[in-house]
Fold each of these.
Amino acid sequence: MAKEQFVAQIADIEKDFPQWYTDVVLKTRLVDYGPVKGTMVIRPYGYAVWELIQKHLDGMFKAEGVENAYFPLLIPMSFLSKEAEHVEGFAPEVAVVTHAGGEKLAEPLVVRPTSETIIGNMYSKWVQSYRDLPVLINQWCNVMRWEKTTRPFLRTSEFLWQEGHTVHASAEEAEEETQKMLNVYKTFAEECLAIPVITGRKTEKEKFAGAVATYGMEAMMKDGKSLQAGTSHYLGQNFAKAFDIQFLDKDGAHKYAYTTSWGVSTRLIGAIIMTHGDARGLVFPPKVAPVQAVIVPIAAKKGGVNEACAALEEKLKKADIRVQTDYSENSPGWKFNEWEMKGVPVRIEIGPRDLAEGKVMLFRRDTLEKREAALDSAAETVASLLGEIQKDMLEAARKRRDERIVYADSMSGLLAGVETGNFVKAGWCGDRACEDKVKEETAASARVYAEGESAQTCVCCGKKAKHMIIFARAY
Amino acid sequence: MAKEQFVAQIADIEKDFPQWYTDVVLKTRLVDYGPVKGTMVIRPYGYAVWELIQKHLDGMFKAEGVENAYFPLLIPMSFLSKEAEHVEGFAPEVAVVTHAGGEKLAEPLVVRPTSETIIGNMYSKWVQSYRDLPVLINQWCNVMRWEKTTRPFLRTSEFLWQEGHTVHASAEEAEEETQKMLNVYKTFAEECLAIPVITGRKTEKEKFAGAVATYGMEAMMKDGKSLQAGTSHYLGQNFAKAFDIQFLDKDGAHKYAYTTSWGVSTRLIGAIIMTHGDARGLVFPPKVAPVQAVIVPIAAKKGGVNEACAALEEKLKKADIRVQTDYSENSPGWKFNEWEMKGVPVRIEIGPRDLAEGKVMLFRRDTLEKREAALDSAAETVASLLGEIQKDMLEAARKRRDERIVYADSMSGLLAGVETGNFVKAGWCGDRACEDKVKEETAASARVYAEGESAQTCVCCGKKAKHMIIFARAY
């Protein structure tokens, strides 16, 4: 009874996915709306996920030789204008500081939407010789892009992210870095978030404003829409020329450097929710679950139950498992529902009968399966179960996604494909007009080039196809 | 010879402390000036210090039950005005966003100078019942205060910090939290930064705009000036009333809650530099040293030296020591100077003769002492030496400071005391007029009440003293 009432608080995931998402993020206290339209407050349960994402990714960056730094929030408006495409792309959505310290500023300052310009300005000072290269710097910070339509984690005027900015002596080296970091993201998404991703180059229309080439990683959400979960840009000499990043090379000549940038954001939290969530709420992959296991005492007033829970909690903590015991006055059923909604990977139930038999009951949030385990070795069992869940969640997500990638050779096929929640592979002639028309008629955009695949004809105009594209509706 | 040339790049610490500071922070690449006046770029070597500060402090906060969250950067101007003292204190130094997304905003938004108001707004929504209390939340973020005179780390228009914001059911509990977090800061400053601090209550003039009481921790820099290194505020019901943070108490009555806030910032990096630095440059306490030990190969071309360095580096890494080996082409003398300037606590020299004798040479940055150690057990020796340095640096700083706390019972005595680089204890009648006059005539401000001490007469007016105050010139 309690269960139905509780679950009823969340909209039906099959019938109204957007409302399900909103219900889940608010009711599990991941996030709340800020007082200014389009802003979010990341609450402790949500921020804990971001901290885990940071910890894992930051370690991967450092293993690649990347160091962290911090650059100023406010960028002179004139910096944006130095790279023509960049200003065109970002000027319409910046927030502008016009007054400070009680006075009108001589030059308006932009709240960073991304930091290529201000970092380029510093790099031009720091990079003098080939000995100074490569520069491999990342920053974790807030950025702001004024958006008309917003949703927590997916699109908000302010969000948290990391942005890596590197400088290299040659195009080859910069291109290699672009790919390397794209692969770091892919590894991270799959191994830590259990989200299978498709990586590939973006079309001219979809690329970053100012890049030579943008590579994206796209993940399929449970409604079949795509979420761009990270991007890596090869910037060529565009920003080096705009900001005069030159170095004295070994051959004695002054040369413009080659730069890259790459980023992922709190959007990844949205990707986790929409990849793994189900009718009961959140389902966290263990590696980024704020709580990996919750212990629920059953009939706790009977002798020894709470003590056994506390002892097991200690053991799990020693095994580096993020665990907590729910000693609250709520009924076991209520607790089950709450922790299921909050997406905790493993629930451990301990009651008087279990104790007497030296057992515990384990519940897997991802598959909803129950099994018994010996109390004595419960910590080891839970540790190995968490590893299993992490692996199984990736495979389950991969299977779901692979079943929903279809091929279309006509506009009606493409439309039907995306309308029924698929990624659609289709040929493209390479003309922007066809790309625009696909968007207009099907609401699907070109997500990435399908690497290593070719097509006969353009899905739109029927002319010879130059590329195979993965089209999808997207967040 | 090389040594003198190298060191000559830094101004004489005895003759020109401010220039010494500027030279050291720039030349060691801790920081650089940003393109907008008053802003700084925290470079990788400086940011690594901040990461270590964050790691230690964050662990201490979590041990006290504090969770992290993230609140929006932009605050509606009207929020500031809800607390009368708060707006008076902060309005003159805010940066204001007036335009966003290509349009003029209906209400200007302030870039947060501190977040009591926007967090108070959210807490009024989250706190409903005594069951929701206490709320213990912290955020790590950037803040902005438009300053006329700026110096890297010490005073910049944007800086990084953490701000804790807690809500409690009673005044006693909130006051206790205020003291608890002040003590966390004190423990952290002394144990991690090796900076002895004096904690105490601030005068009305010096307190946080909107607080009932502000407690500060003050550290003596090498020039005898004080640096406010952290503050903890008891806010009473001021913000609870301004933002309607009410809860239904056990007795069925609706009551206003009591709040606190507390923060430390990247200013702590300035405190480290000016507490421990010397004529050769930086001196890092091991716990926050980005590099704790540097290995310098001597006559590296001779057989086995580089290999021995690499093997030792591995051993040190396994012992969780942050170590690096300088294989560059520079001369040993040049390397010694560079790593001394960069403040690395321990230098390990390995040459062919050392190798033959199974020894290494260890150099302590803090005392400039050299000693031999067995190569075989070098990792253990270095680990224990780092612990020793950490402890000795605190004691040395404490001794220096304690020798420079004097007592004065006249304005001329007070002036002479601060002019010769001391903290001066003196009686105060409690009148703002006397506090202002001391500032005007000696450039010293009341840092904190000297706890548990009393004085006979006011140093300024000669009337009966109500308090003993620690006066100092301050950053």
Note: The domain at 291-386 of chain A is CATH 3.40.50.800 (Rossmann fold).
Amino acid sequence: MPDEQSLTEKLFRGEPRAVARAITKVENGAHGAAALMKEVFPRTGNALIIGITGSPGAGKSSLVDKLALFYREQGEKIGIICIDPSSPFSGGAILGDRIRMQTLGLDKNVFIRSMATRGNLGGLARATVDAVAILDAAGFDKIIVETVGVGQDEVEIVKTADVSVVVLVPGMGDDIQAIKAGIMEIGDVFVINKADREGVLRTEKELETLLSLAHRPDFWHSPIIKTVAPESKGIEDLSKAIESYYEFQKKGENLERRTAIAKWRMLELLQEKLLADVLSRSGTGEKLDRLAQEIAEKRNNPYSAVEEILK
Amino acid sequence: MPDEQSLTEKLFRGEPRAVARAITKVENGAHGAAALMKEVFPRTGNALIIGITGSPGAGKSSLVDKLALFYREQGEKIGIICIDPSSPFSGGAILGDRIRMQTLGLDKNVFIRSMATRGNLGGLARATVDAVAILDAAGFDKIIVETVGVGQDEVEIVKTADVSVVVLVPGMGDDIQAIKAGIMEIGDVFVINKADREGVLRTEKELETLLSLAHRPDFWHSPIIKTVAPESKGIEDLSKAIESYYEFQKKGENLERRTAIAKWRMLELLQEKLLADVLSRSGTGEKLDRLAQEIAEKRNNPYSAVEEILK
């Protein structure tokens, strides 16, 4: 396919339109996505992939913007992927374009993309990981994956980054132990953003205590960086902390972690493909609709329905 | 199987141990889970299922505890399921037992369970929905599904409840628009918790504006309830708001929504079953490990690997 060939050629030259088209392709699971990704993979491995997560309200988006600006000033090309939760019963991305588009979006060396699930079939995690690989192959130096929420999918995605950054704010209230426990294990670098607020010392102390209790298999001691994103305070420190974990983990073989990630990617892809194969059989769509209605009317149950589909 | 028979008998009598065993069964996707659920489904439909979501730090857990206590005082049996995000690369539930266990856990008419993903295979949403059905069949009057995070999976799960409650706190900062946009569409009832804090009026006004812009297909006007959970303030109002949406949505046919949920459950189950079938083929485990290592060493890519598994 000459069209496909020119797409990958343009992609490897870093043309924004080709990057966007390629990502749309893997997002939709379109025909040809597998062929594209097989070409993309051998070209990956040059970018530093940074995952950023934390509660909504922690100021992640402005932190990401400032970090991206900092990298831009070093002359680097930046990709930003924003994971956007949305309900499967209504569908559609919610945030889409944001204020950032006004400050960063016009810069040709910054590529920004929001990704959201479409419909019920999942695949967001797989699509995100593929989009990161595309940006990597297209020559972006730093790729930042930012999550809006802090749920299961988001944690899975952030864990596939080279360096995972967890963003907290001072005095988050009575659930702070719970949050920290939930995301403690994934943080290679911790940020206390809005560090001009009251309670920053207490939050820092609590975090230090929790970190001292955690046992990382690699014996890395996760640093705590204080930032005030709107004033760009602490952004350089953050970039240094990210770099230093990146160097640290490159020293270790780290093959075990990459194998675990590879396995997870295969299982995601396998599941997606198996379901797509069943759904593409003729008549399955109608059968599914009929069975769903039967279940809704309590004349059937999901377990028996699935057996009928597979018969 | 006489053992199975006695399990469902005990389950339908509401014996806590049988309930716990049944949930473990569906959580592990154990042999016999499908047979169990086929017996459970015809017995469901009596409980009111309440989904509670919102950012970490919003005080959801104490709100849930107070609401459960309120229902207990009305003589009702309460089931609480807590969705617990955890990393697939380390596995295991994180919160497990919490302070609540000390206040509610000894009450025989309160059943509390944390659910977390185990490993990479997903299925948390399906397992949670099955656990809710089990509690329903076991005679619990109110079932509260509480999420720790506010990600994709959590939103999906909460949407399957009869009434979805979204919890906010005053003055969550610059991401508040984003949060609200993300969960706006799923809230049948909104709670501003910690309503003794500064900024409550502003948050209420903002929320009202957003709600007036939202168009719900059912024309329901989502109420905003102010609570201070530790002091049990606003809990009765919350229970009334929940009840009134429940009555409202029962009047409408609501078949469309239930059909959408049924379809989603089928697809989840189908995906899980298809993957389990492939993985149970002899030799697949070893093949998967070998391919994962090849990918980690960049000698292969996930797409080609999946094709090899399916060959």
Note: Residues 45-120+137-254 of chain A form a domain with the Rossmann fold fold (CATH 3.40.50.300).
